Amino acid sequence: MSRIETHNAWVEFPIFDAKSRSLKKAFLGKAGGAIGRNPSDVVVVEALRDITLSLKEGDRIGLVGHNGAGKSTLLRLLSGIYEPTRGSAAIHGRVAPVFDLGVGMDPEISGYENIIIRGLFLGQTRKQMLDKVDEIADFTELGDYLDMPLRTYSTGMRVRLAMGVVTSIDPEILLLDEGIGAVDAEFLKKARKRLQALVARSGILVFASHSNEFLAQLCDTAMWIDHGTIRMQGEIEDVVRAYEGPDAAAHVRRTLEEMAAEEARE
Ligand SMILES: Nc1ncnc2c1ncn2[C@@H]1O[C@H](COP(=O)(O)OP(=O)(O)OP(=O)(O)O)[C@@H](O)[C@H]1O
């Protein structure tokens, strides 16, 4: 069973060349983590502060919060890429971190070859990838471009390729950072179904996004990260209301209603 536990976990980035003049006053702007000093008096960005959470099989959590609030850092902590600088984090399960859709891609090799490479990067075997390469290729609708080097692709074409691979794997813990803005609406609709199926197959999902609609489609609870701390956790609609106000919450409710109606029709 997959499980993640963190206990009073902090992630701090030491900034050795920070100009101390502007840091004399501890000023907390709207964006970004708090800036402080560690016990050795080095300036640090406190990207995450005192995070205690427990995620278990079946949890589907959406992260909301301002730019620099700590969402991506939290995903990296939960994936084991970052060790906590204080406190602890224990991760049980095979993690598929999908932060940057371009990571694990090589611009000089073909789309087909990149499908395999990206799959290996996400923990699949070569055999597993060879078995599904045709199906992934079909999904991307990239046709003859799949024989061309990746550097000839537009951003949206790269996202199609990456989405095809990511949604073909079976992760125990799926950590997603949004990176889907570049695809066109029709493809997104098609990808949504695959993403939802992927989420259903994975044990735990944590998804950071600035799109409430997308959060509502993939997650069932939300967590508001604010200046590196967990400010609120609960139903998506409630968290979005507290974070962004009633209009955004109403949009979440409409999205949920539309999804329920769509499911009833199918
Ligand atoms: N490698 C790093 N070195 C120094 N500071 C960092 C580093 N990575 C992140 N930070 C800082 O940590 C804080 C949290 O950043 P993070 O990327 O986790 O935010 P986020 O909530 O994902 O933001 P966004 O919504 O803009 O993507 C920010 O203040 C950022 O400046």
UniProtKB/TrEMBL annotation:
Residue span(s) of domain ABC transporter: 23-252
Domain of life: Bacteria
Keywords: ATP-binding, Nucleotide-binding, Transport
Listed GO MF terms: ABC-type transporter activity; ATP binding; ATP hydrolysis activity
Pfam families hit by this protein: ABC_tran
GO cellular component: membrane
PROSITE patterns from the UniProt entry: ABC_TRANSPORTER_2
Gene3D superfamilies for this protein: P-loop containing nucleotide triphosphate hydrolases
Family to which this protein belongs: Belongs to the ABC transporter superfamily.
UniProt cross-references to PANTHER family, sorted A to Z: TEICHOIC ACIDS EXPORT ATP-BINDING PROTEIN TAGH
Name listed for the protein in its UniProt record: ABC transporter ATP-binding protein
Organism expressing this protein natively: Antrihabitans stalactiti
